[in-house]
Amino acid sequence: MDDISVIKSKLSVPSNILIITHRNPDGDAIGSSLGLKLFLDEFGHNCKVLMPSEFPVVFNYLPALSSITIFDNNQEEARQMLTHADIIFCLDFNGLDRIDPLGLEISESHAYKAMIDHHLDPEPFADWYLSDVHASSTSELVYRFIEALGHAPHMVNTDIGSCLFTGILTDTGSFKYGTNPEVYRIASELKKIGVDDYDINDKIFNSWTLRQMKILGHALRNRMEILPELNTGIIKLSKGDYLKYRISRGDTEGLVNYIMMIKGMRVAAFVREMPHGEIRLSFRSKGEISVQELASQHFNGGGHKNASGGSSKLSLDETIQKLKDVIPQYVRLTDISAG
Questions:
Q1: Does one domain contain both 134 and 231?
Q2: Distance between alpha carbon 185 and the CA centroid of its chain, in Å?
Q3: Do 137 and 195 share a domain, yes or no?
Q4: Per-position DSSP letters for 134-170, written without gaps between them
Q5: Which helix (H) or strand (E) is 116 found in, with range?
Q6: Same domain, yes or no, for 249 and 144?
Q7: Rounded average pLDDT per 10-residue block, the chain, 339 residues
Q8: What is the DSSP letter of 306?
Q9: Do 149 and 4 form a contact (C-beta atoms < 8 A)?
């Protein structure tokens, strides 16, 4: 963390603050952004949230959703927000390519920029950094940021806490991976202030529609391939699958994790052909296998050692063949025997 006194001074007077997170925002991106926004509201700032694209409807229970502007739907309004911003917080991304056209807008903005993020290799575009690759989530870092400012836990109410708990819960897969002693301490603090962890779990994980359940069944029965010699599994969905099952944003969230439930699996990949033709990939791994390297070296992506994503300009079948060709570089015999 850079010197906290610098950003504390910047926040000492009410300002126009814009919080930006990455395209296709997940629970951590949304939770950390809204949690920080609600905290900064307490000090008289005019604080708004800007997201490049829509977020999954499963998170509609979160407070302050009306403060979010979607760039894809309101580009002129978004550019006005950027023009008038005094401070821009960049949350849950560390490279301007993660926010598409907004990246150029941010690079040209004269606003003071602060990054709070937990991904590897942050780009040097911000003025102030809170970057920790060992953190479970950006939501964990936002709580630690509030603590460093001297305002936690007494300035963290249940609305702020619910947002941050959502981010922690989703990015750790219900505390199954990416955890550390700090995140359990923070979860305990949030529980103490009244965050209803049961209710949040229920809203996120027990709100599937019948259509979503059928998508899962189709993916596991018809679109999953196991490579036993590599302890690897691949699920693919085509453009036709998206149209047939009317798959929308959030419907496939967490699908890649089902492969990791199979005994002995060390690597999981979810490859999907979006309706507009883009190929996206999600990766998970166990132990020392780095899917971050796999994603960054071969699929224009990145993320964390055991959880990353990427994209491909090849066709769906060509992408899967490329994946099969390069996976052996990352899965060693010791990794397989460990499974």
A1: no
A2: 21
A3: yes
A4: TSS-HHHHHHHHHHHTT-TTTT--HHHHHHHHHHHHH
A5: strand 112-117
A6: no
A7: 95 97 94 98 97 93 95 94 96 91 91 96 94 96 98 97 98 91 98 98 93 96 97 97 91 93 96 93 94 95 90 97 96 56
A8: S
A9: yes
Structure-token match 């598409």, residue found: 100
Domain residues for 144? 4-205
Structure tokens at 132: 């920790």
Query: Contact at 8 Å (CB) between 138 and 109?
Result: no
What is the number of structural domains in the chain? Answer: 2
Query: Is residue 165 a contact partner of residue 190, using CB atoms and an 8 Å limit?
Result: yes
Angle, nearest 10°, between helix axes 197-205 and 158-171? 50
Q: What is the pLDDT of residues 189-232, one digit of tens each?
A: 999 999 999 999 999 999 889 999 999 999 999 999 999 999 99
Looking up residue 185, the CATH number of its domain turns out to be 3.90.1640.10
Q: Quote the pTM value.
A: 0.89
